[in-house]
Specification:
alpha+beta, three-stranded antiparallel β-sheet, 6 strands, elongated
Length: 147
């Protein structure tokens, strides 16, 4: 059988219900950065929500990129390991080298409506098999298999 190389994507959503310190800091700092960067596209203060900005303010789609600056330091703290994804022994193992930040929703006057996501893309993996709900994979370079 030929090697099947896959890339996994893990989507981490953070909102007002964030309970872990890392998630809460990402939530708080991205909201602060969103409010600051949104001023660029809302100088007359006509719009309140992220959706309104996207719809009516030219160039507001840049907010995803502009606000992502607030996330980079937090992502570096993960040391290249996807959060929350554990092997069958309870250890973080899934390496990533690419991520994408996205604003899902936000409101300039209501922090509780702020919601962001970080999509983590794994390094290439060789997919050997699926056993129940577990994937049997190894690093594409040929390191030992993990589930």
């Amino acid at each position: 059988m030929s090697n099947r190389t896959i890339t996994l994507c893990y989507r981490k959503i953070m909102d007002a219900n964030a309970s872990r310190p890392w998630q809460k800091m990402v939530f708080d700092d991205t909201y602060t950065e969103f409010r600051m960067q949104a001023q660029l596209f809302n100088q007359e203060q006509k719009y309140r929500s992220f959706g309104e900005l996207l719809h009516y303010a030219p160039g507001a789609n840049q907010l995803h990129f502009l606000v992502s600056a607030a996330v980079r330091g937090y992502v570096q703290q993960l040391n290249g390991l996807v959060p929350d994804v554990l092997d069958n022994l309870g250890r973080h193992f899934l390496k990533f080298s690419k991520f994408q930040f996205e604003i899902i929703n936000s409101d300039l006057l209501d922090k509780a409506r702020h919601q962001v996501a970080i999509n983590f893309y794994s390094d290439p993996l060789v997919w050997h098999d699926t056993i129940g709900t577990q994937l049997l994979v190894s690093e594409a370079a040929g390191a030992g298999a993990k589930c």
